[in-house]
Amino acid sequence: MQPTLLILAAGMASRYGSMKQIQAFGPGGETIMDYSIYDAIRAGFKKVVFIIRKDFASDFKAIVEPPLEGKIEIDYVYQDLHAFTEGFDIPADRTKPWGTAHAILCAKDAIKEPFAVINADDFYGRDAFEKAYKFLTTDCNEKVYSIIGYELLKTLSDNGTVNRGVCQVDGEGNLTAIAERLNISQKDGKIICDDDQQPKELPLDSSVSMNFWCFDPAVFTYTEKLFKEFLAANAQVPKAEFFIPIVGDKFINDKLGVIKVIPTSAQWFGVTYKEDAPEVKASLNKLVDGGEYPAKLWK
What φ, ψ does residue 107 adopt, rounded to 5°? Predict the structure, then answer.
């Protein structure tokens, strides 16, 4: 069964104001997401599902669909605040959906095969997609999931702090714990987390999740169960979010299976701050000049 690529794009409208203002980074006007889809296609993926907000669906489709026509099957899922919240009172002033794991849950009816999950605005690199495809087509099942792991030091921004899912990995390369750490930065050659968790200092070679996960569709039923538990505890908390690492960590602790951490040699980059944009453009131009990508992806 061919795997699917699930792209988390529901937050793009809030970042860009509208889809019409989506940022071009490549020399041919490509978005970061274009490069991910290009890498996924050449790795072997035949279908992409976008998780978006319904209120900017027409703008999104107008931008994304034309260059992809005939190259990959496309489907859409809408992340809605009230999806899967039956039986719970949601605060009237809550407008933001429930986070990345809730976004995955919203794709429950659209995906019946092993799938990879990525963020729309992170650049993951060709090697990451090739390793994900290989895992999804050879090793993935309801008891074996994976994360594409990046070196923490390679995922920091010079322009401010970042949040990362920091992984603890055993000798067999399996995840033993993952925690969403906040306000990470490098200071005097050390990586420091300015949050309420321990330890404050992280090893330079810590493995982190950049939200590139590989799952069997059995994860949907499990995620729905955890989301009900999350709502029971947090429905009235205004900014509570249900992150994918919450699901991964609980899956391990419940001893339901293993999550392999698959290291990639790819260089991650993304735009956490608008000041990161020139560096991202320069990095993409360098890859194009080196022959990794054509100057126009979808010519």
Answer: -95, 10
